[in-house]
Amino acid sequence: MSHSHADSGHVHEGPHRHAHSGGHRRLLWVLVLTFVFAGIEALGGLWSHSLALLGDSGHMFSDSIALGIAAFASWVGKRPPSARHSYGLARAEVVSALLNGLLMLAVVSAIVVEAIRRLRGPMPVAGVPVMVIAGAGLVFNLVAAVVLSRGEQTISMRGALVHVMGDLLGSVAALLSGTVVYFTGWTPIDPLLSLLICALILYSTVRLLREALHVLMEGVPPELDLNQVGEALAQVQGVLSVHDLHIWTLSSGVPALSAHVVMENLAQWPKVLAGMQHLLRRRFRIGHVTLQPELATAPGHAVFARGAKVYPLKPENSGR
Length: 320
Fold this sequence. Notes:
- By secondary structure, the protein is an alpha+beta fold.
- It folds into 2 domains: about 20-215, Alpha-lytic protease prodomain-like, CATH 1.20.1510.10; about 220-315, Alpha-Beta Plaits (2-Layer Sandwich).
- The chain is about 60% helix and about 10% strand.
- It has helices at about 20-50, 50-75, 90-120, 125-150, 155-185, 190-215, 225-235, 270-285, and strands spanning about 10, 240-250, 255-265, 290-295, 310.
- The chain has a 5-stranded mixed β-sheet.
- The radius of gyration is 26 Å and the shape is elongated.
């Protein structure tokens, strides 16, 4: 049995209506300020021979690139659907997060290599300049983190925030390093703190990369359970079973669902469709839904499964 698109139920509640404009402006402001302060830290790190400052400067330069990517993705994501991209370009923010994660891995690797070299051959560090510049960097990064944390937290925005939080931790490390060197003269603290901060940044970066890859591979959103959704749909009045159920993420916070719905009487479809849409919106917060009804042709409806997971009507509801 075949069905035309007119037989299916589709509802799209505007998931692409994000607060992109505000996020785009925030990203641009932080981008400019980050680039300027990165230059200041780089000069200060070269003058004081502080790896912690140079590492933080490297983070901030990479942040400038990351924020630029995120800002571009935010702008691209506002473009409407087209004949070539029927879902629009909202997933540009996921690609942005992936690129930012890979960039952070490169920066962390470079700092780790330099820290190991410094541990083998310590260099003198000027404590006072390090403390002054790191203190200013800490204030700046706190402000940048607050700015980016306001508003909607898309995966692209969180990718940029990971970079800024890495810089904030780098400023803390540089401040501690300068303080210890000034009062004790123990220079190995500089590369040791750099390694500690790299470990913390690496943890956040790996989590971001896993999330971005999960979205790009069209995995089920972590907050949703495929079996739970399927069983809930099968309990809607008039439904015998549900199969070919798929749930994926279009972009940050925008889950989508498609499924085939087996029924004994297609005349009940408008009522069943409304009930399923209401259930998915209210219980699972899924607004982008495509459902296709199918007429039952045999007991058990195995013909519709084709080896896929089937969510049959539970025994207590068999009288529907």
